[in-house]
Amino acid sequence: MPSQLHEVLIELFRGAPSLSAEVLRRVFGVEVPAYDQAVPSSENFTQLDPKEFRADVAITFSQNGVARLGAVVEAQLGDDDDKSYAWPVYVTALRARIRAPVCLLVVTTNAARARRLGRKITIGHPGFVLEPLVLGPEQIPRIDTIAEAQKYPELGLLSALAHGNEPGGLAVVIAASAGLLGLDDEHARLYHDLLMTSLNEAVKKELEAMVLGGKYEYQSDFAKKHFAEGRQEGLRAALATIIRARWGAEAAQRTEARLAAASLVDLERWLAGAVTASTIDSLFSDA
After folding, report:
1. Which of 1, 12, 41, 228 has its CA 20 to 30 A from that of 280?
2. How far is the C-alpha of 20 from the C-alpha of 8, rounded, in Å?
């Protein structure tokens, strides 16, 4: 079953067709011809053989209604030997359909897998070799300025997914988060949730410290809500731990529902008094 990350990567390239052109040009040095339209094509390349061939994303770049370049984008998060047989079909079928050159772009989140996927695929006919263009963590550019992330929001997200947990990655995360503000609300929410989920605890705490210290402020309502929800969850866990340690497991179980329904303000107040309160009842007495 496809993972959320796999589906989001597909949506990134399908929802922003020009992203593949930017990656081909910027990362792989492909000479992308001038175009005035970039639209997703049918990903179905089934031929007479009953076996179905379906790519993740297929994009056609056209100018004045004439196809100039095609791109097949595959999100590859696992190992699949069948792809070496399917990918040549995707490329040649799209080329035949649009009557223009076609590139194969493979996106993965694992550096070792990226190196394996980049191996040449020998078809068998002399000189007929397909070499996938693989976009892995080592190939994804590091975008750590808000201005650049706002110009290329989808590429900024890919950069944060690849480099957000690296040393100095917080700048990449902040840039990506700001860049997402330029997208429609549905995609911005989806991508921001994935970004926050991808971060390790150290980066999350560093970001939280910046917010609480007034050094950084989330610019979007959904990001502020995401931060508040994350902080509430942390406060509930801390309170439950203190209550269990001071008054036992039964008291912790008895207060679970109360903590679950509590506001951020109440949780902060209770946590401040949890260490000094003489009884569990006195902790909640001013509620």
Report:
1. 228
2. 15
